User: Which sequence fits this backbone?
């Protein structure tokens, strides 16, 4: 593809406007249009970034020459909008949790495969430099044998949420990261979850993932903590790696020293958008596939089922 990738964004609210901004800052992409059910918001974002506004994505696909699209709607609308884009022949980057159910997610994966289109899921945590460093250190056994990992993602109640609970909204990020770092799928999940603010969905959860060979991951998420913490600790037989997602600072401790690798701060979203665009331009599989999203969603659903039933849920391969 000699020209720039022509892209659009569906859903220009809290997160979608960042997708729109990101595409305008990349050399590989041209933001052609944005779509939102709120006409004024669509017009405002379109005017800000030099794109055309729409309130119906189906009309946008018919009128505009678009190669790829970011789907950033409410979680319960992600599947429908992503499916509409795929049927229109567009490559799709869909925000997490990808769909409301794994059945919807599976249909999306099948449709993308059938139409030979890229379907990427928005797990932008993978694009933080510290995560990439951790991944390589694990692969090269620089921390010895991987033993376990612990993630803590807690904060006050978010103003943007309304249609999913804390597990599918933010816990799914850590579920994906555990799959990525362990390079395996968990075989079982046990979770506790509940509501303290009398909302429709859970606002806190503790999730334990059991991996093959006795490896374990622990995930704590909530919307109850008065201040934000985003931390990941990976324990190996010879060293421990600790990442602060907010500052992107990584510390590696072994028996003799503490090391803080230096690397430039990068905006994960722009790295993600660029990765998506390049995968389409080069005709390559995206860094985070629809199958990755499907598996993370399946684990999230199993965690909620475990919390509801109070028992361990075994996961199929």
Assistant:
């Amino acid at each position: 593809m000699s020209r720039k990738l022509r892209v659009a964004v569906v859903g220009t609210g809290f997160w979608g406007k960042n997708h729109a901004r990101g595409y305008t800052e990349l050399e590989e992409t041209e933001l052609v249009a944005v779509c939102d059910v709120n006409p004024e918001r669509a017009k405002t974002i379109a005017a800000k970034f030099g794109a055309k506004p729409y309130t119906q994505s189906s009309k946008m696909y018919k009128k505009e020459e678009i190669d790829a699209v970011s789907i950033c709607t409410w979680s319960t609308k992600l599947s429908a909008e992503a499916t509409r884009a795929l049927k229109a022949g567009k490559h799709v980057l869909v925000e997490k949790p990808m769909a409301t159910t794994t059945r919807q997610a599976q249909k999306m994966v099948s449709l993308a495969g059938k139409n030979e289109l890229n379907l990427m899921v928005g797990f932008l945590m993978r694009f933080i430099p510290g995560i990439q460093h951790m991944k390589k250190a694990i692969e090269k056994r620089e921390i010895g044998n991987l033993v376990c990992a612990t993630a803590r993602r807690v904060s006050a109640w978010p103003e943007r949420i309304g249609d999913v609970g804390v597990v599918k909204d933010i816990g799914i990020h850590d579920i994906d990261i555990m799959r990525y770092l362990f390079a395996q799928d968990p075989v079982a999940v046990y979770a506790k979850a509940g509501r303290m603010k009398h909302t429709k969905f859970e606002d806190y959860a503790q999730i334990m993932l059991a991996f093959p060979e006795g490896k374990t991951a622990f995930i704590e998420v909530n919307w109850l903590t008065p201040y934000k913490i985003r931390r990941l600790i990976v324990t190996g037989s010879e060293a421990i790696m600790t990442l602060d997602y907010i500052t992107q600072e990584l510390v590696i401790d072994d028996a003799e020293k503490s090391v803080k690798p230096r690397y430039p701060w990068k905006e994960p979203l722009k790295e993600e958008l660029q990765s998506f665009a390049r995968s389409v331009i080069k005709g390559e599989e995206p860094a985070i596939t629809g199958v990755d999203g499907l598996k993370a969603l399946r684990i999230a659903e199993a965690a909620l089922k475990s919390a509801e039933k109070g028992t361990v849920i075994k996961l199929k391969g």
Observations:
- The mean pLDDT is 96.
- The radius of gyration is 20 Å.
